[in-house]
Amino acid sequence: MTNAIACGQHLTPKRIVFSGDTGIFFTYKQEIELLVKFKQFEGCKLEKAKWEKYAMDADLQIDKEREAYNHLNKEYSSLLVVSKDFQKKYNDEYTAHENTKVELNIQIGKKRTWIKIAAASLTANIGLIYILTR
Questions:
Q1: C-alpha to C-alpha distance for 126 and 9, rounded to whole angstroms
Q2: In terms of C-beta density within 10 A (0-12 exposed, 13-18 middle, 19 or more buried), how is residue 26 classed?
Q3: Beta partners for 22?
């Protein structure tokens, strides 16, 4: 119980004692238990408020994460298109390079054949000249 000042006098309410126990409605033990329950109830209300705030914060965080995931998914999709384009270009260039190597080998083969023909022709011509000049 609290003290009060009324008309300059300090008033302190006295407990009513009934049959040797304090309080009219509760025994001392029941009053203590009730006060403990009130304190627990206040603590539960604070805890509930904290959990509600935590739930709201978690929902906000989930929304932010979902938004970030959707953004990353869009980026991934666009980069997937770009990578397929690069892959197609690489495959085209690789095929063109392989075709160039095949064509180069054919030209080298033709060149070697012409060199052999020219060397044989030169040898034959030198031999003919040698025979004719003798």
A1: 149
A2: middle
A3: 17
Q: Name the amino acid, one letter, at 2.
A: T
CA distance 15 to 1: 9
Give backbone dihedrals phi and psi of 52, rounded to 5 degrees, phi first. -65, -40
pLDDT digits (tens, 9 = 90+) for 11-34: 666 666 656 665 556 677 877 888
Distance CA 134, CA 125 (A): 14
**Site of tokens 């008033």:** 11
**Rounded (5°) CA angle 109-112-116:** 140
- State the amino acid at position 72 in one-letter form: L
Report yes or no: 23 and 15 within 8 Å, Cβ to Cβ: yes
Q: Which is more confident, 35 or 64?
A: 64
- Scanning the chain, the segments in alpha helix (DSSP H) are 28-132
